[in-house]
Amino acid sequence: MNDTAKLVYGAVLGVLYIAAGLLQMVRAVVGPIPGLEAFYLTGNLFGGFVLLVVGAVFLAGVRNLAAGAGEGAIFVSVGVLLSVAFGLVELLALCALGIDAYLVGEWVEWSVADAMNPLLYLAVLGAAGYLAWGRTFLRGLSAA
Amino acid sequence: MDGVCPLALLAAGTEAKVADVRAGKGMQARLFGMGFCPDARVKVQCADRGSIIVSVGDARYALSKGIAMKIIVGCAKGAA
Amino acid sequence: MKREIRIALTGNPNVGKTTLFNALTGSRQHVGNWPGVTVEKKTGKASRNGFEFEVVDLPGTYSLTAYTADEVVARDFILEERPDIVVQVVDATNLERNLYLTTQLAELGVPVVIALNMADMAEAQGNPIDYRKLSAFLEIPVVRTVGTRGEGLKDLLDAAIREAETSLHHEHTIGYGNETETMIASLADALSADGDLAGRYPLRWLAVKLLEGDENVLAKVRGGPASTRVEEILSRIDPDEYEALMADKRYEAIAAVLPQVRKANLKEMRPSDMVDRVVTDRYLGIPIFLALMWGAFELTFTVATPFMTAIDAAFAWLAGFVAGSIEPAWLASLIGDGIIGGVGSVLIFLPNIFILFLILAILEDSGYLARAAFIMDRPLYALGLPGKSFVPMLIGFGCNVPAIMATRSIEGEKDRLLTILVNPFMSCSARLPVYILFAGVFFPDQAGSVVFFLYVLGIVVAIASAKLFRSTILPGEASPFVMEMPPYRIPTAMTALLHMWSRGSMYIRKAGTIILAGVLVVWLLASFPFGVEYGSAESFAGMIGHALEPLVAPLGFDWKVAVALIFGFIAKEIVVGSLGTLYGTGEETLPTALLADPGLSAATALALMVFVLLYTPCVAALGVIRKETGSWKWTGFSVAYGLVVAWLLAFVVGRVAGLFMGGV
Predict the structure, then answer these.
(1) Does the record carry Membrane as a key word (chain A) (predicted)?
(2) What ipTM does the predicted assembly reach?
(3) Residue C586 has what pLDDT?
(4) Residues of C in contact with B39 (CB under 8 A)
(5) Model confidence over C370-397: pLDDT tens digits?
(6) What span, in angstroms and rounded, lies between the C-alpha atoms of C431 and C609?
(7) Which whole number is the average pLDDT over C606-618?
(8) Structural domain tally of chain B?
(9) C-alpha distance from A8 to closest chain C C-alpha (Å)
(10) Which among A49, A51, A52, A100 is the top mutation candidate for probing chain C, defined by the most C β-carbons within 10 Å of its own β-carbon?
């Protein structure tokens, strides 16, 4: 993947993460935002903060790439790793909550929607970047 | 050597040669053991208000400003 | 015929020495302390071809000067105990600096074998090392090893056997240049007058150390027959200058060898350097760190839930089984209420602790925590704490016992003491059950925020205490931060799990010993004198509580709470179990009983949580504080300071909360 593609990719993810983060912050402070139920905002203030941080890393990469600075692509790569890492965190949390619901016998009432949140579904986009070049990046990183 | 300055003042990405280590006895020996001895080539990888991550050979060290001020480097060619 | 060979493992920090040690000795090891210092001493056994090896793992050092406790331990062992073979573990990806130590070992004239470790990493970087050539140049056997996969261990032991069997050992010396050599020669000549010294140490080494201004060696010479002449020679020179000169010569000698054994392959900028720019970024560094910490705690608390549910169910079943099948009733009560209930209420937090330690191990092994310590150094330094105090503080959220042990990586004595003293304010997971119970009962809608507030309060008190101690009892500044940034690595499951286990097992041991004893005492005090109702005001527990009630009455606590707090001294988890006992309800119906108690308001509950957060470290933590500080005075201080701070803050929080919520 060349730098232009990374720039576009980073810009899209950066904007999405920042938007989700801001909305989640608003949701946490003000309360549910009507019409946005489909985005599974959780009202978790810290979750919102994490979304903003990941978004900021992507956008810092975009800014550096646009300015032609060498390490711009690295910011986007780190953003991808963060996106996937937090996606995994949320996925594990989701599994744990599901298993727990099963153990205490509330399996019937439990649904994946209970644990759904932006960190989880935005990580699907992050995973795409990971598959495209993140893996090679990670391997190169630990070898050197 | 003309133009010497403390390591702490270098910007990220700058390379330099160690000119002198002006730390106390114990710290000096330790820095020598880590590779910061006169004539060693160092490169500042990250710099944040005097705290730096610097590479010496294949090793990377984080130094706080206090220590980085005690390592005096001659500014290599190109740099001021 | 069986022969014993004593091996000392030495090397720079972070070269995989401990991994290699574990691979060599397996489970046949013993961990203790070096006499007089808090440096861990690990010894282990291995065998090969009829030879028995005793392997001693020396602390990692960059050189063999004698300025830090680690260096003194390493040097004294090699010099005084004279192991048969010194194995230097060398990081193949960082040859130049590692060989500096080799030059010093060679001067000591001890038989050295080099374990060229992490050889696979060097090869993966396209920078393989011709270890046969290296061996020929150094005249030291060099064995290629990969500690993480156990490669090269047999070769290493074989080389050690060969070296131990041969009597031919070269003295490998570095030429320091005419002027220095003349000085060395005259010093060596002067030293030869001291027969005792000359018999024990190589003269050249003594002379070199004296030129470097080594106090330790000078002390050995002083008072001896060579003293006057040596001091006379030394008075004419500036040791600082010689030290720099000789370090330079050593590196020069290394630089001459390096191009012969590997291709020069210093990349301009490695990917890991670029990642460092991102994670230590001036603006993004700390937010990234906070986000990762949030992820760590999210995982700790959610992923642990099903495990906790399962453990809870298992203990409930066990308690029920005991109650139904054991005669007489008092024995059933002892085993069921006392042991199973008490130990169960502690073990239920095992998943929390293990998951937190696993995540910290992964972050540490990946190399990230070293970067985090670097970015946290600036804010911590401003508060008077060294940057390295940061990892122990994080571990403190799991359990203060391994956290206080982890302060060993801090060099300055004062810095270390300070970190130990403030560590108990980091809210360990043992305190969580108390918060969960009271926040859940009295603040059902804001339970999460209340718990969060307590964690933050703990951090604030730790910081404020550090500031206070710095300006009173431990004056001075935090020592400057020097830390090697290890290369990023993808942690292997095995090493991360081992790392987790070494810290988490301390908690299990605590549950098995101190806490078991503690709950037995609780049960006894609640059951006697003979004939009283279990946990009633007439029991010994009740009497103690009533005696202490005046002390805690200003905080709004009654005798039951006083008893629970006393027992919480054994382990803070016990507070909940004791209240269950004292309210005579068991833990399931305890929330209802607490709500029904007119003496407990929301404000009092908050004050109680603050008190539990801050008051004296538990017995296990105190044991470690005593061991690590080596002083009863500081241990006592820790108890007293914690109690005073807890009382004052609980009082203030209770009153302020009372103003808003009514009723204290």
Answers:
(1) yes
(2) 0.93
(3) 59
(4) 248, 251
(5) 899 898 888 888 888 888 888 889 888 8
(6) 9
(7) 90
(8) 1
(9) 19
(10) A100
Whether residue C212 and residue B29 make contact (CB cut-off 8 A), yes or no, is yes
- The radius of gyration of chain C's CA atoms, rounded to the nearest angstrom, is 30
- Tell me which chain C residues have a C-beta less than 8 angstroms from the C-beta of B64: 377-378, 381, 387, 480-482
What pLDDT shows up at residue A86? 94
- B12: domain CATH number is 2.30.30.90
Q: Which amino acid is at C91?
A: D
- Judged by CB atoms closer than 8 Å, whether chains meet at C284 and A60 is answered as yes
- Closest by CA position to C183, among listed C232, C228, C249: C232
Rg (CA), chain B: 11
For the beta carbon of residue C532, count every other beta carbon within 10 angstroms: 17
C252 is in an annotated binding site: no
Residues of chain B numbered 23-42 and touching chain C (CB < 8 Å): 25-35, 37-40
Identity at C371, one-letter amino acid code: R
Query: What would the two tokens of residue A35 be?
Result: 């019409």
Residue C525's pLDDT is 82
Question: Does residue C419 sit at the B interface (CB-CB below 8 Å)?
Answer: no
**Chain C: residue whose CA lies nearest to B31:** C62
Domain spanning C3-165, CATH architecture? 3-Layer(aba) Sandwich (3.40)
Residue of C nearest to B12 (CA): C277
pTM score, two decimals? Answer: 0.84
pLDDT tens column, C65-117: 777 777 888 888 988 888 999 999 999 888 888 999 998 888 888 889 999 99
Pairwise CB contact (< 8 Å): B64 & C213: no
CB contact (8 A) between residue C280 and residue B48: yes
- Higher-confidence residue of A119 and C599: namely A119
CB A143 within 8 A of CB A136: no
Give the structural domain span for B38: 4-75
| Residue C288 near chain A (CB below 8 Å) | yes
Strands C40-48, C29-33: pairing kind? antiparallel
Q: Do B63 and C251 touch (CB under 8 A)?
A: no
Is A53 in Cβ contact with C295 (below 8 Å)?
Answer: no
User: In chain C, which among 189-218 make CB contacts under 8 A with chain B?
Assistant: 212-213
CATH class of C178-261: mainly alpha
Residue with tokens 């975009």: A62
Instruction: For chain C, say whether B76 makes contact (Cβ under 8 Å).
Output: no
pLDDT at position B80, please? 39
Q: Is C520 annotated as a binding residue?
A: no
Other CB atoms within 10 Å distance of the CB of residue C229: 17
- Decide if B80 is inside a domain: no
DSSP-derived secondary structure letter, C338 = I
Tell me the mean pLDDT in the region C172-177.
Answer: 78
Residue C664 scores a pLDDT above 50: no
Where do the domains of chain C lie? 3-165, 178-261
Residue C89: predicted pLDDT: 94
CA distances in angstroms from B68 to B10, B44, B52, B74, C243, listed in the order given:
10, 11, 7, 14, 20
- Specify if B8 maps to a domain: yes
Q: Residue A29 — very low, low, confident or very high, per pLDDT cuts 50/70/90?
A: confident
Please report the number of interchain residue pairs, chain B to chain C, with beta-carbon separation below 8 angstroms: 130
